[in-house]
């Protein structure tokens, strides 16, 4: 079993109306934890199994200092699915979590990953400048801790007009992250591959979601990623930045519900 603390809930109330729904595995972004998926986990656990782990180095999961490449996160996800006896699922990830979803699809293939949800993320490899910046940020977090960084980026992670409770939740997640875990992931992301060729070969349905006011991954980036995928839907969530699942949970859940219904349509 990989080093995860995992939210895992399941409810069978809809199994008479639907074929066995595919489990939904939610992969959080950086520098957050599994609680960023609370508005989704609480809703979708009514109709299917929902699994939301704390990634290695985040939340309550153990920290691995040094470097954690996306391939290591994907291997952890595979181990988690094996440990929970989940043969196939829908993978949803936001930001870094979306890149882990792409890595998982490359590793596990369409037999095990039946649908992709890519939220506020991008498939491009790191640039030379980006690699320098990520490694510099890793050093800064180890030197200064997380709070200054959390203060600095809060209103880029969520829009300035976001609800105060959402801002408080996001800031709390960032400030509570272990700097060693965050730094290891930053170093790993700095070495990520180019996922664009992979996306052109995806054979399962995909949902691309982005906040209309996201400055980290703008709508144009989501549109470019959507164009690469052979079978994809694009949803832009108005009045949201980088975390539309928290900023506009009703709209995000509506888009996700429509996508999941397509994968598990009602029986006659």
Automatic annotation (TrEMBL):
The keyword Hydrolase applies. It comes from the Bacteria. Keywords: Hydrolase. Transmembrane segments: none annotated. Pfam families: Abhydrolase_6. The keyword Hydrolase applies. Residues 24-255 form the AB hydrolase-1 domain. GO terms for molecular function: hydrolase activity. InterPro entries: AB_hydrolase_1 (IPR000073), AB_hydrolase_fold (IPR029058), Carboxylesterase_BioH (IPR050228). PANTHER family: HYDROLASE ALPHA/BETA FOLD FAMILY, PEROXISOMAL MEMBRANE PROTEIN LPX1. This is Alpha/beta hydrolase. It comes from Streptomyces fuscichromogenes.
